[in-house]
């Protein structure tokens, strides 16, 4: 039910009162100087503009507004049945047209950073098989300049699930090693065009989630899978995830090497990857379930980060997949170890892990590709934390502290950013006290991890505003700002007001939102043979 302005004002006063009380619990001064506080979005979810009628004939090289080419999500969402609600990202939040207002909205929140993604098909409508789209370059130049004007550091992701559809049709995208050169080509255009101002790059967003949903379960494009993992026309869930993972890792490597050799020395920025980092804890206090939790962590996290940090796939994954797992060459191994300056941690999930090697798992988890682990948010019918809009996302703030501890221990305390963290709901209102509690508790857990010595340098709320939430369409809302999809009006939720207070209520805040945020970092960059790498 809509609130009258007076009712809204009264609830605002109540929440602000609570915020004042809670301010002693967690405040900005619990975090180090120069810490980045921001919000995240991605291109397809917030920005896209695709002319519907052109999608069906994309093969003729159709482009949409601003010269953008058709991408994999444009095509996938227009196939009936792929997105239950029938929604698509054709217009999304219309951010493309109102980016200046959106930057002002961030400025008024008091954030000093913003994580967004660059639409590959807007820069290269046909990948490397066509021209660079000058309007795409212009759009991102304008966005970046506007952010810097407002003292907001741009954190750019090169690939957040969307690729030019041409690459899917030509060679099967991530299933082909050809994609590595396409991605490197795109990345270099971005470094060359924007790297004088963008100092924080993430090559790929959540390759682990993309592989799971694109090639294991078939719920994201290209919608490939096999039974019993999903119901698809094409695909092989037991082998394709392994191939796609390998190509994603080597694509990261190519882009990162180009940055480190050709751009980092003169541009002085940093390059990382953003991984979905769930936390798994043993279902029971038995050695079998402790091992299962270890395997679950390895399959979700270390499968990607071990190569990028330590040069090879983890033994936990190799033990399950054996020779199916491809091998890196010696040269690749050496380069891989030096391919990350920081780890982007997207954290939403903490689940129980149950062993499926020694016990039967009827509900899933009995295959090698799953690491012989069954994962669940419930134990004996009791949920691990409060439920949220998405069934496997529970509120477990400790999970953030634990995953940061895991990464710190396994990767020698590499610098980290929490590049996504947030809570969804299906409800339309702007009164989201649950979201406020969520962020407060996760920030408190993060502050604790930092006190224990973890090198975490930033926290980005997912999301600045409601947007297209993949298979859930527009029904699932993650925003600090509510979006009315008819009028595109953004309205701050109570959580936005809370975040603003959190960010601006103490003196440090105003200093840390400097006019030149990219100078605030304190990575120590050391020269190695051919590349630069950060240490601490
Ligand atoms: C992440 C993804 C985001 C957003 C978020 C909330 O996996 O990177 O794009 O959808 O989940 O579900």
UniProtKB/TrEMBL annotation:
<dbReference type="InterPro" id="IPR018120">
    <property type="entry name" value="Glyco_hydro_1_AS"/>
</dbReference>
<dbReference type="GO" id="GO:0005975">
    <property type="term" value="P:carbohydrate metabolic process"/>
</dbReference>
<protein>
    <recommendedName>
        <fullName>Beta-glucosidase</fullName>
    </recommendedName>
</protein>
<feature type="signal peptide">
    <location>
        <begin position="1"/>
        <end position="24"/>
    </location>
</feature>
<dbReference type="Pfam" id="PF00232">
    <property type="entry name" value="Glyco_hydro_1"/>
</dbReference>
<keyword id="KW-0732">Signal</keyword>
<dbReference type="InterPro" id="IPR001360">
    <property type="entry name" value="Glyco_hydro_1"/>
</dbReference>
<comment type="similarity">
    <text>Belongs to the glycosyl hydrolase 1 family.</text>
</comment>
<feature type="active site" description="Nucleophile">
    <location>
        <position position="420"/>
    </location>
</feature>
<dbReference type="InterPro" id="IPR017853">
    <property type="entry name" value="GH"/>
</dbReference>
<dbReference type="GO" id="GO:0008422">
    <property type="term" value="F:beta-glucosidase activity"/>
</dbReference>
<keyword id="KW-0378">Hydrolase</keyword>
């Amino acid at each position: 039910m809509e609130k009258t302005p007076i009712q809204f004002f009264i609830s605002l006063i109540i929440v602000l009162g609570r915020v004042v009380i809670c301010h002693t619990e967690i405040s900005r001064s619990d975090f180090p100087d120069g810490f980045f506080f921001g919000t995240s979005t991605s291109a397809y979810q917030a920005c896209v503009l695709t002319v519907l009628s052109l999608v069906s004939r994309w093969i003729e090289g159709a482009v949409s507004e601003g010269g953008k080419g058709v991408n994999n999500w444009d095509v996938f969402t227009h196939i009936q049945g792929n997105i239950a609600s029938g929604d698509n990202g054709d217009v999304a939040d219309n951010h493309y047209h109102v980016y200046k207002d959106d930057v002002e909205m961030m400025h008024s929140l008091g954030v000093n950073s913003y994580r967004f993604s660059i639409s590959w098909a807007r820069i290269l409508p046909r990948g490397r098989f066509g021209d660079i789209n000058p309007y795409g370059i212009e759009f991102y130049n304008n966005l970046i300049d506007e952010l810097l004007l407002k003292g907001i550091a741009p954190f750019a992701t090169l690939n957040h699930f969307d690729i030019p559809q041409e690459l899917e049709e030509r060679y099967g995208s991530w299933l082909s090693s050809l994609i590595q050169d396409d991605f490197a080509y795109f990345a270099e255009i971005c470094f060359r065009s924007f790297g004088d101002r963008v100092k924080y790059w993430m090559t790929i967003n959540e390759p682990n989630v993309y592989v799971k949903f694109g090639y294991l379960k078939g719920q994201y494009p290209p919608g490939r899978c096999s039974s019993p993992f999903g119901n698809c026309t094409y695909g092989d869930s037991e082998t394709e995830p392994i191939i796609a993972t390998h190509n994603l890792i080597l694509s990261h490597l190519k882009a990162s090497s180009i940055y480190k050799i050709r751009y980092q020395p003169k541009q002085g920025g940093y390059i990382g990857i953003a991984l979905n980092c769930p936390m798994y804890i043993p279902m029971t206090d038995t050695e079998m379930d402790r091992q299962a939790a270890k395997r679950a962590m390895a399959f979700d996290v270390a499968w990607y980060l071990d190569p990028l940090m330590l040069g090879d796939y983890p033994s936990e994954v190799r033990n399950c997949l054996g020779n199916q797992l491809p091998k890196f060459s010696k040269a690749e191994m050496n380069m891989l170890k030096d391919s990350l300056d920081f780890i982007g941690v997207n954290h939403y999930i903490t689940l129980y892990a149950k062993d499926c090697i020694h016990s039967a798992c009827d509900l899933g988890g009995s295959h090698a590709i799953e690491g012989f682990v069954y994962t669940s948010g419930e134990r004996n019918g009791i949920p691990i934390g409060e439920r949220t809009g998405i069934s496997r996302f529970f509120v477990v703030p400790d999970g953030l502290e634990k995953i940061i501890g895991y990464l710190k221990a396994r990767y020698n305390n590499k610098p980290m950013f929490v590049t996504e963290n947030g809570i969804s709901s299906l409800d339309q209102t702007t009164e989201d006290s649950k979201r406020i509690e969520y962020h407060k508790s996760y920030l408190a857990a993060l502050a604790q991890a930092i006190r224990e010595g973890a090198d975490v340098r930033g926290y980005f709320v997912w999301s600045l505003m409601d947007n297209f939430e993949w298979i859930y369409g527009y029904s699932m809302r993650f925003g600090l700002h509510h979006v009315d999809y008819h009028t595109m009006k953004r309205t701050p939720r109570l959580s936005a007001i809370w975040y603003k207070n959190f960010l601006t209520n103490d003196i440090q805040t105003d200093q840390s939102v400097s006019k030149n945020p990219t100078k605030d970092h304190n990575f120590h960059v050391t020269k190695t043979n051919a590349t630069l790498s950060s240490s601490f």
